[in-house]
Amino acid sequence: MARLSKPLDATATGREAKAFGAGLRELIAGQDEAIEQIVSVYQRYLTGLQEPGRPAGSFLFLGPTGTGKTRIVEATAELLAGTARAAIKIDCGEFQHSHEIAKLIGSPPGYLGHRETRPMLSQEALDEFHTEKVKLSFVLFDEIEKASDALWNLLLGILDKATLTLGDGRRVNFSHAMIFLTSNLGAAAMEELLRPRLGFAPAMAHGPHDQKIEKAGLEAARRKFTPEFINRLDRIVVFRPLGEPQLREILEIELRMVQKRVFQSPSAGPFLFKVTRRAKEYLLREGTNEKYGARHLKRAVERLLVEPMANLIASGQVREGDVLRVDFDAAKGRLLFVVEAEGVPAYTLAEMAKLVPSRAAAA
Ligand SMILES: Nc1ncnc2c1ncn2[C@@H]1O[C@H](COP(=O)(O)OP(=O)(O)OP(=O)(O)O)[C@@H](O)[C@H]1O
Ligand SMILES: [Mg+2]
After folding, report:
1. Span 249-279, pLDDT tens digits
2. How is domain 245-362 classified at the architecture level of CATH?
3. For a substitution probing ligand 1, which of 250, 283, 296, 302 has the most ligand atoms within 8 Å of its CB?
4. Residue 358's pLDDT band (boundaries 50, 70, 90)?
5. Residue 228: exposed, middle, or buried by beta-carbon count in 10 A (0-12, 13-18, 19+)?
6. How far apart are CA 39 and CA 330, in angstroms?
């Protein structure tokens, strides 16, 4: 054996993990750390190096409201399982009493309601969206600080042994599941740190301010949760407050999703809408609110763009094959809708919306 000293690059991932990371970056603005951590755990899972008898990955997400904690789990499911519905969501606050816990794990045989509905955490529910290529499940426990003791014990068992025993004694295997936990813990302390920043938050650089926010989150988690619990987690990630560049990116993501909805709607066309720069600025101004993160922006898009467009469709003013320009009417302080072209073939519209590859580029 020849002696070598060949340096390797342990940050390079395989093709699948790389594509997954690129997909996440298209759907999620900012939150680079969260993306990196999920990709890294996915890569470990793909190569079979996960700890035996543990879930494929476990994450605790902290950070301000409306910054993408839930969205990143949906996006992960979308990219790996083909649909956001593959993410099983459990609002911990809703499972306080034993009859509520029964919705998760079922009740013992003979009990009222046994076999009536499939428990949310059965093996079938977990495996439902497995594909030929990806046999992974995604389970999200939201607001774990609200979990009852009974739920907490279930959760610890899942994290520790990757198994859960159902009411009727059957065992569910979680070793092909990624477990995501979110908590608003420390949110108050984080908000306090955010308060001086009126208007747009500065860019999401890893500045001293963000380090303080991160620290506030981690400290709150250490105070509330036992070391046993913290030690069972693969990763704890503090989501960052969204700054102006991220909100701009989210607006683009949201507009693309609205365009997709138009293409998928049975009654809406398809037609294409183009939003001018001034209209985008208006939507950003209307949709910026430090406290609610991107939720406010989403609501602004629904109220100011989607709902008026629904009226235009219902009243027959916008038809299949139309190209619509959405501009800002400064005098009236609202969006202005103008038909720019008619009778454009659906495929051309989809090309223009970049929803399908362009034929010109392929030729
Ligand atoms: N970083 C982001 N990238 C893309 N979209 C985002 C991002 N953050 C928020 N959004 C948008 O805002 C919506 C609300 O965000 P999300 O549900 O992920 O918030 P959250 O962090 O889970 O908040 P909460 O703590 O209140 O549950 C998402 O559905 C998504 O459309
Ligand atoms: Mg959430």
Report:
1. 999 999 999 999 998 888 777 899 999 999 9
2. Orthogonal Bundle (1.10)
3. 250
4. confident
5. exposed
6. 44
Nearest-CA residue for ligand 1 atom 19 is 66
**Domains of the chain by residue range:** 15-242, 245-362
In DSSP terms, which residues pair with 324 in a beta bridge? 273, 339
Distance CA 292, CA 21 (A): 26
- Per DSSP, the three-state class of 339 is strand
Task: Check residue 43 and give its pLDDT.
Answer: 93
Please give the distance, rounded to the nearest whole angstrom, from the Cα atom of residue 107 to the centre of ligand 1: 34
Q: How far apart are CA 296 and CA 65, in angstroms?
A: 11
Tell me, what's the pLDDT at 97?
Answer: 86
CATH superfamily, domain at 15-242 = P-loop containing nucleotide triphosphate hydrolases (3.40.50.300)
Greatest Cα-to-Cα distance within the chain, rounded to the nearest angstrom: 79
CA-based Rg of the chain, rounded to a whole angstrom? 23
Ligand 1, pocket-test mutation among 33, 70, 289, 298, most atoms within 8 A of CB: 70
* Residues with C-beta less than 6 Å from any ligand 1 atom: 28-31, 65-71, 184, 250, 253, 293-295, 298
pLDDT digits (tens, 9 = 90+) for 299-318: 999 999 999 999 999 999 99
pTM as predicted:
0.87
137 CA → ligand 1 middle, Å = 21
